[in-house]
Design brief:
- The chain is mainly β.
- It is built from two helices and 29 strands.
- Strand 28 and strand 29 form a beta hairpin.
């Protein structure tokens, strides 16, 4: 994991040669992580990192593909639990079958949002379908604030319509951008959108200055605030910007995912599939997964649930926002 600032500026902001405000960009590089399955499909993880745990309430960013499932085996994630978070599934290609302990049975398809709320506890499965030849997308988590982290289970599906702006096509799956607003419920102010940038285009977007933002590049080289981000890199920009300008530096279309939210001021403990506030929260969730009925049962999956790893001997350190 790394957090490399390119073209360093004063903390939080800089000034261009024309005296204009230029936000500082921190570049977060991805690390490869095996997701599981018989041939260990791999994902590129940019959040969390040792130097940055959160962007708004976004606390987990996995980016995978394009993977030929005949080579990788695709995605086959057996029943597993979640607490204290929402999962956000967004695909560029392929199809994933979702089942959860609420009884939800849905498919994740390109351009369609599936959002699952874990709250006090939920379990689910994720399996790429036989119709999938190339699997490509992102899996994201949102930390729930303390007052809502034990909320009930929920599942939402939404298909945003594409919005045209100068130089780009935008699909807003959470929050508001480019004149479009998602109806999907969240527990803190958030932004999530896919943008496809035209070749050699420049796109300026009005954004909430109270948000911090992260720009994940899927493909292409994209310049933001004077910093070029390459595929699989996540650029972080702090609060204070009311516009973001994206420049596609390539002769082909580029695709990015823009994430944002108000700073999440609570510290959290993340371990395996759980988010809590203390070691005790995590230990209790693990014990309940292994021995109790807190997370319910997923029906329709042929195979046993994933056992929880052994808790580390050392304390789990709460981590929070980096200024």
């Amino acid at each position: 994991m790394s957090d490399v600032e390119r073209e360093p500026a004063e903390p939080g902001r800089g000034v261009s040669g024309h005296g204009e405000y230029v936000p500082k960009v921190d570049v977060l590089s991805a690390r490869d992580v095996p997701l599981g399955g018989p041939r260990a499909m791999r994902v590129r993880r940019t959040l969390p990192q040792r130097a940055r745990t959160l962007i708004g309430a976004w606390c987990f960013v996995d980016h995978y593909g394009p993977d030929d499932v005949t080579d990788t085996g695709g995605m086959d994630v057996a029943p597993h639990p979640h607490t204290g978070l929402q999962t956000v599934s967004w695909l560029f290609s392929g199809e994933i079958e979702h089942r959860d302990s609420m009884g939800s049975h849905a498919f994740v398809r390109p351009g369609e949002l599936n959002l699952m709320t874990g709250g006090y506890g939920i379990s689910h499965t994720e399996v790429s379908t036989a119709r999938t030849t190339v699997l490509h997308g992102v899996q994201l988590w949102v930390a729930l604030p303390g007052e809502h982290r034990h909320t009930g289970r929920d599942f939402q599906h939404y298909v945003p319509s594409p919005v045209r702006v100068d130089g780009a096509e935008v699909r807003v799956f959470l929050g508001a951008l480019a004149g479009d607003t998602s109806p999907v419920r969240t527990f803190t102010p958030l932004l999530g959108a896919e943008l496809v940038l035209e070749p050699r285009s420049t796109t300026t977007l009005a954004v909430d200055a109270g948000f911090e933002h992260g720009l994940l590049v899927d493909h292409g080289d994209v310049r933001i605030a004077g910093t070029v981000l390459h595929p699989s890199e996540l650029g972080y920009i702090g609060t204070g910007s009311d516009t973001l300008t994206l420049v596609n530096e390539t002769d082909d279309a580029a695709r990015v995912v823009l994430l944002g939210g108000t700073p999440f001021e609570e510290q959290i403990v993340m371990w395996w599939n759980f988010i809590g506030r203390s070691y005790e929260d995590i230990a209790e969730a693990r014990e309940d997964w292994m021995t109790g009925d807190r997370f319910g049962t997923v029906h329709g999956y042929d195979g046993p649930p994933i056992p929880a790893p052994v808790l580390p001997n050392m304390p789990l350190k709460p981590r929070g926002r980096v200024g």
